[in-house]
């Protein structure tokens, strides 16, 4: 998403937002679409064990239901963000919502794991389109004086589905089968699309040359690296190492190609700022740790501790719930304390919580799990808001669109790497796979805390 898009939108007839009635319905449509894409991420993890049994697939293979979604999203983010001016915000969001809704239907009726993973790839494409267009649309729908209110609602559309997703999935699985966690998207997505098309006017579009080579290298780089890490878990080490090596080569080629491109997808001006680049690194580490835990915990609860899906979902819920609470607190603290300090503190707490989960008693009581999950959530919430604030305010205001795009890339890249590592660690660890994932997640959280501390050192050095 570029600043040109926002400025062109601001100079259009929508520079003071939509009329009140249209604004309300347009906001409902946008926020519902964002909420559905985030809910889809939160609910699937709980259903993975049931999917594996229903489709006759291994645990490691079933994790690709998550991997495929994350991989497709992260591959699409940079190319879509670079083309948003040519596509237009309305077309971009409507296409994303339509793709997401239709692919949800395919997920629900998928007869095999291959079909389900393919449909999840399409869902990831839709989620990427929604993610790129969502923030810009909120700034267009609301008048300038109410943009803060719109952003607050957008934050709720992200946080609430994450908090309620595990419980919602557990409730669905308690009364019916896993396809219904996808079917719920179909009527709601259809309503959101109809409201969106009825209320949001078209946005200005400008000519922009599609970077075919950069898009190809971007897809190959992320795809080969993630698939290679996943292949390590299947035992074919030579193939896995070859895929990883080719992925790294593609990353180098992408970097060189982007350096010469007149309109690069990568915001090199921001990445040259040490504080910004360290914030991106911190974000990727934190989201890698998060997804390592989120994907592996249902297997720990249901396969190792012999709990039901309902119990599993309820026990995971304290994490996102306390994240939402701590994030609000961190939003107030970041005005008084350095973002890097708060981020380091939060990731340190997250690492401690994950280590404590590794050393659960053999037969833990519910409260022994719940307080550890709440601790992880507090740590993640204390990190999230300050780090995002740092990413969005380090560079000039005119580059807020590029900063937002890198924020999304860091998030999805972390999720994608974490999902691929789950496949690897499940293949290597067997029954100890979930515990191994939590330990590696703790290591990533600790690494993020170190990166954030380095950012604070840079800030102090620059100030001194």
UniProtKB/TrEMBL annotation:
Ion transport found in the keyword field:
no
InterPro entries, per the entry: MFS (IPR011701), MFS_dom (IPR020846), MFS_trans_sf (IPR036259)
Q: Which GO terms describe its molecular function?
A: transmembrane transporter activity
DNA-binding is among the record's keywords: no
- What stretches pass through the bilayer? 25-48, 60-80, 92-114, 120-142, 154-174, 180-200, 212-233, 239-255, 275-297, 309-327, 339-359, 365-383, 408-427, 433-454
A Pfam entry, by short name = MFS_1
Assigned GO CC terms: membrane
User: Where is the protein found, in the record's own terms?
Assistant: Membrane
**Record domain Major facilitator superfamily (MFS) profile: where:** 26-460
SUPFAM superfamilies cross-referenced by the UniProt entry: MFS general substrate transporter
Q: Where is the signal peptide?
A: none
> Matching PROSITE patterns, A to Z?
MFS (PS50850)
> What is this protein called in UniProt?
MFS transporter
**Alphabetically ordered keywords of this record:** Membrane, Transmembrane, Transmembrane helix, Transport
* Primary location recorded for the protein, binned into one broad class: membrane
Q: How does it sit in the membrane?
A: Multi-pass membrane protein
């Amino acid at each position: 998403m570029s600043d040109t898009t926002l400025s062109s939108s601001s100079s259009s007839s929508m520079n003071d937002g939509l009329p009140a009635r249209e604004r309300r319905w347009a906001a409902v449509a946008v926020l519902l679409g964002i909420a559905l894409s985030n809910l889809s991420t939160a609910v699937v993890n709980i259903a993975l064990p049931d999917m594996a049994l229903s489709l006759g697939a291994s645990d490691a293979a079933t994790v690709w239901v998550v991997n495929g979604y994350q991989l497709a999203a992260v591959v699409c983010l940079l190319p879509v963000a670079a083309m948003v001016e040519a596509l237009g915000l309305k077309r971009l969001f409507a296409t994303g919502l339509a793709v997401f809704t239709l692919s949800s239907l395919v997920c629900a009726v998928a007869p095999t794991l291959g079909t389900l993973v393919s449909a999840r790839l399409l869902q990831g494409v839709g989620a990427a389109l929604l993610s790129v267009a969502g923030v810009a649309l909120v700034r267009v729908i609301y008048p300038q004086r109410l943009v803060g209110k719109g952003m607050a609602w957008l934050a709720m559309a992200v946080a609430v589905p994450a908090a309620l997703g595990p419980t919602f999935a557990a409730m669905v699985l308690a009364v019916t089968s896993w396809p219904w966690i996808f079917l719920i998207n179909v009527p709601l997505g259809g309503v959101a699309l109809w409201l969106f098309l009825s209320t949001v006017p078209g946005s200005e579009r400008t000519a922009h040359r599609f970077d075919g080579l950069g898009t190809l290298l971007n897809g190959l780089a992320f795809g080969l690296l993630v698939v290679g890490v996943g292949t390590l878990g299947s035992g074919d080490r030579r193939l896995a190492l070859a895929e990883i090596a080719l992925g790294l080569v593609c990353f180098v080629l992408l970097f060189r190609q982007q350096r010469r491109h007149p309109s690069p997808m990568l915001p090199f001006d921001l990445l040259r700022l040490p504080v910004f680049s360290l914030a991106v690194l911190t974000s990727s580490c934190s989201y890698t740790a998060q997804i390592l835990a989120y994907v592996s915990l249902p297997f720990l609860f249901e396969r190792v501790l012999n709990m039901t899906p309902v119990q599993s979902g309820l026990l995971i819920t304290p994490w996102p719930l306390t994240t939402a609470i701590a994030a609000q607190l961190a939003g107030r603290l970041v005005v008084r304390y350095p973002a890097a300090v708060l981020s380091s503190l939060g990731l340190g707490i997250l690492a401690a919580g994950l280590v404590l989960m590794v050393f659960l008693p053999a037969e833990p009581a519910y409260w022994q799990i719940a307080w550890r999950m709440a601790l992880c959530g507090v740590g993640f919430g204390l990190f999230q808001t300050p780090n995002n604030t740092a990413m969005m305010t380090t560079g000039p205001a005119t580059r807020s669109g590029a900063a937002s795009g890198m924020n999304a890339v860091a998030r999805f890249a972390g999720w994608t790497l974490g999902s691929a590592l789950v496949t690897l660690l499940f293949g290597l660890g067997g029954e100890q796979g979930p515990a191994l994932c939590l330990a590696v997640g703790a290591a990533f959280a600790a690494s993020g805390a170190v990166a954030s501390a380095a950012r604070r050192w840079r800030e102090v050095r620059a100030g001194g």
